[in-house]
Design brief:
It is built from 15 helices and five strands. The chain is an alpha/beta fold. It has a five-stranded parallel β-sheet with strand order 2-3-4-1-5, covered by helices on one side. α10 packs across α12. The structure holds zinc ion (ZN).
């Protein structure tokens, strides 16, 4: 592991090279799903550029004043440009303001760096304004954009950036990281790795926030509650869900990712595969359910969940997705 980053070796190697003054670019774009480590990687790059006590070439110590201030987002030559409070979008006036400050010389280092997280949420006007900084970059400025996917940005922006694509780790690797860094039990690490789909940042948040795990158990309880019920009751459930507060897409994605861990466990139980269960504490319910289903039925339920998660990403109505999944699961005794 280098740069204290788990996985993403290719991206780290590329950025390490980029710390050389003759290689460095004025703009980078880091893409990948939320929680995969985009901002951590961006900050590591800034640390490597500024560390006062690097243990090796292109590396950083994470202990000196510069490293600590960068980590805390308190380094004078680093700013993070986020949407204004209560807004999801980054607006053109924010970009203009950033451009004015970017034109000034750095305070205390070689480079002024601006990290703009989730640039897919910028308005078109803001995107067009940013283009100017990419076409005629100030000499000592570096922009680091992050986004969910390159396709969600103007191509004129993406094509002017050095691009790094981050993918989640495998569930096994993610669980290993959790065990090593947070000293979690094997069961707990497996559960969080599955739940986060291999996104280490997300998994760590679950591990450090008890309420997230309460939500997990609550999502499972809802599934166990709905399985013995009729189609009509299931439709009602999907409707109630669609009226609950919060972000519908995020809530539904969470629900499906939790249910997915449960159905995987049912598959493991039914096929006697001997693999570790994620939801060990529900072992008796898993056995009861597995005994009522054919292997092929479980497989098709699993596929439906995976497809549902993809559809949520593709902006399909979450209520329809949940309805469709629930109506295709037979009525079961729990
Ligand atoms: Zn340092």
């Amino acid at each position: 592991m280098t740069w204290k980053i788990h996985g993403h070796e290719g991206a780290v190697a590329y950025l390490k090279e980029q710390t050389q003054p003759e290689k460095i670019r004025h703009a980078y774009l880091i893409t990948g799903p939320k929680g995969v480590g985009r901002r951590t990687l961006a900050k590591a790059f800034v640390k490597a550029l500024n560390c006062q006590n690097p243990p090796a070439e292109n590396d950083f110590c994470d202990e000196c004043t510069a490293c600590r201030q960068i980590e805390a987002e308190a380094w004078a030559d680093l700013s993070i440009l986020r949407p204004a409070e209560n807004s999801r979008e980054l607006r053109i006036d924010q970009i203009r303001q950033m451009q004015q400050s970017l034109a000034l010389a750095p305070y205390q280092s070689q480079w002024r760096v601006v990290i703009i997280p989730d640039f897919q949420n910028a308005t078109i006007a803001a995107s067009n304004a940013l283009l100017k900084s990419l076409e005629e970059p100030p000499s000592r400025a570096i922009l680091i954009l992050t986004a969910d996917a390159r396709e969600n940005l103007l191509e004129t922006i993406a094509s002017r950036c050095g691009i790094l694509r981050l993918r989640p780790l495998s569930v096994q690797n993610c669980a290993q990281v959790l065990q090593n860094t947070l000293q979690l039990s094997d069961e707990e690490a497996q559960r969080l790795a599955h739940l986060s789909g291999g996104r280490v940042g997300t998994a760590m948040r679950y591990a450090q926030d008890e309420s997230q795990l309460d939500q997990y158990e609550d999502a499972l309880a809802q599934l166990l509650d709905i399985l013995p019920q009729s189609k009509r009751a299931r439709l009602q459930y999907a409707e109630t869900l669609s009226k609950s507060k919060g972000n519908q897409r995020q809530n539904s994605a969470f629900l499906l990712s939790v249910w997915l861990t449960f159905w995987r466990d049912i598959l493991i139980t039914q096929s006697q595969a001997g693999l570790p269960l994620v939801n060990l504490r529900h072992e008796s319910a898993l056995k009861t359910l597995a005994s009522q289903l054919e292997l092929s039925q479980i497989e098709s339920i699993l596929k439906a969940h995976e497809k549902g998660l993809e559809q949520i990403d593709a902006n399909v109505n979450p209520r329809l997705i949940i309805e469709n999944i629930l109506l295709n699961i037979p009525r079961l005794k729990v």
